[in-house]
Design brief:
With 390 residues, the chain is of the alpha+beta class. It has 2 domains: 192 residues, Histidine kinase-like ATPase, C-terminal domain (Heat Shock Protein 90, 2-Layer Sandwich), CATH 3.30.565.10; 162 residues, Ribosomal Protein S5, domain 2 (2-Layer Sandwich). It is 31% helix and 23% strand. The protein has an 8-stranded mixed sheet with strand order 5-4-3-6-2-1-7-8, covered by helices on one side. α2 packs parallel to α7. The radius of gyration is 22 Å and the shape is globular. The structure holds adenosine-5'-triphosphate and magnesium ion. Adenosine-5'-triphosphate binds next to α2 and α5.
Length: 390
């Protein structure tokens, strides 16, 4: 068969196959763009579980008129210019293809205004070659992206969508996860015209605990053990459900690396191991944020960016394990524990880079390689067996 260059729309639809799995993935990509644009408020409007409408409005920096067409083109990004940028990336986006992918499988319009412009402009892509039309519009500084009739032209994908309620639950679940790590942002979520979440930005720890209670449940927030640990260029912060509290709210198993929500067997193993060491077979809730020097982690390993690869995976595993072990053991030493109280433990574990201490706690496959070939014993679902969609 003769070799041909694919039309732009088809190439984008193929790329969309990896990234745009369901409405929640569209919400993820669009909200991440809003956050990368420095927005402090993001309003998410959903109709019919997102299959009819996904509308994201932000107050970020907006897009210049002359860049609107590029924003909808594949391999066009403002976030990286060279390989060095990618090695130290801190933005959510870097692939330059989310908008192009989404607009190839839905009717997408992008309306935007920058502070320097007097007028707003609206862009949409049409046809096989996805030529972009730009027309004047009314909009304050920031952007609104409307995605209508998701998968209208890819019926096989559309058939995979679940009920509106299920799809909306996936969207809400993703929002919960991002809202805990970006508590500085005001998020609203509306479904079929009804306001479902109004998450105001938090500035104090007390306000953060309220957000944690809203999202992870009261039981988790009330017994939360604070983790705050630093060693060299690694820092782990967040909250664990106290092992002395009844294990409830088990769905809240959230781990972030440099603000990015990830699933990672190595991380999951370290967390599980720490809880197992204090006799917890069921995994209590946790919200943990790892900060690592960006050169030490490769974020370009998964098309939807759900995974990362640590350059020193054993070291990171050991750091997380020891940080959590120290926090948990200090809490247990301080018995009797007053329940319904927030516990705070600052720990500084001694982490060595020698490999000998890893063999007892690391999955075998990690002991010799950074590859993610995990033995069946450790191949359980990330986040404690709960299947998650982003
Ligand atoms: N809400 C927004 N506000 C401001 N600029 C935006 C917004 N959404 C997209 N952009 C601009 O459009 C470009 C393309 O967005 P797109 O999501 O397709 O790619 P990306 O974010 O660069 O990479 P990725 O494909 O990894 O998400 C971005 O690099 C950014 O410059
Ligand atoms: Mg993006």
């Amino acid at each position: 068969m003769a070799i041909k260059i694919l039309p732009a729309q088809l190439a984008n639809q193929i790329a969309a196959g990896e990234v745009v799995e369901r409405p929640a993935s569209v919400v993820k990509e669009l909200v991440e763009n809003s956050l990368d644009a420095g927005a402090t408020r993001v309003d998410i409007e959903i109709d019919k579980g997102g299959s009819k409408l996904i509308k994201i409005r932000d107050n970020g920096v907006g897009i210049e008129k002359q860049d609107l067409a590029l924003a909808l083109s594949r391999h066009a990004t403002s976030k990286v210019a060279c390989l060095d940028d990618l090695d130290a990336i801190m933005s959510f986006g870097f692939r330059g293809e989310a908008l192009a992918s989404i607009s190839s499988v839905a009717r997408l319009t992008l309306t935007s205004k920058t502070a320097q412009q007097d007028e707003a402009w609206q862009a949409y892509a049409e046809g096989n070659d996805m030529a972009v039309k730009v027309v004047p519009a009314a909009h304050p500084v920031g952007s609104t992206i409307e995605v209508v009739d998701l998968f209208f032209n890819t019926p096989a994908r559309r058939r995979f969508l679940k009920s509106d309620k299920t799809e909306f639950t996936h969207i809400d679940e993703w929002l919960k996860r991002i809202a805990l790590v970006r508590s500085d942002i005001h998020f609203t979520l509306t479904h079929n015209g009804k306001l479902v979440r109004n998450l105001r930005p938090t500035t104090t720890e007390a306000q953060y605990m309220q957000r944690l209670a809203q999202i992870g449940g009261k039981a988790f927030a009330e017994s939360a053990l604070k983790v705050d640990c630093q060693h060299d260029e690694l820092a782990l912060s967040g909250y664990l459900q106290s092992p002395t509290a009844a294990v409830v709210g088990q769905d809240t198993h959230y781990f972030y690396v440099n603000g990015r929500l990830i699933r990672d067997r190595l991380v999951n193993h370290a967390v599980k191991q720490a809880f197992a060491d204090v006799g917890m077979t069921e995994q209590p809730a946790f919200v943990l944020m790892l900060t690592i020097e960006p050169h030490q982690v490769d974020v370009n390993v998964h098309p939807a960016k759900h995974e990362v690869r640590f350059h020193q995976s054993r070291y990171v595993h050991d750091f997380i394990l020891q940080a959590l072990q120290s926090a948990l053991s200090q809490l247990l030493e301080n018995e009797p524990i007053e329940l319904n109280q927030q516990h705070s433990v600052a720990v500084s574990p001694q982490v060595s880079e020698s490999t000998s201490s890893y063999s007892s706690v690391m999955p075998k496959s990690y002991a010799s390689t950074d590859e993610y070939q995990v033995s069946s014993r450790y191949s359980d679902q990330p986040f404690g067996g709960h299947k998650v969609y982003w």
